[in-house]
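In this supplementary section we document a worked example of the pipeline. Step one takes a protein sequence of length 73 as its only input; no multiple sequence alignment statistics are reported here. Step two produces a three-dimensional model, which step three serialises into structure tokens for compact storage. The input and output of this example are shown verbatim.
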Amino acid sequence: ESTRKETPMTTRMQMWSMALTAVATGIQAVVLLAVSWHWWALLMGTMSAINAAGVVAAIVNQRREQQQEEDPQ
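The serialised model returned by step three reads:
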């Protein structure tokens, strides 16, 4: 068990993270498309997975915050 208290990431921070990931993905797509389709496809798949994970984390976090507001303990 960890005794260290972790600071939860806010929904706004998650949204910024996803936005920056989307921008980075777009820039890399333009650059890497001219270099190698294989590497472009691999990197875009990885970046898409990271962005999708961020979307899921933001939704879960938002629902958790709503539940805490509705049912404080």
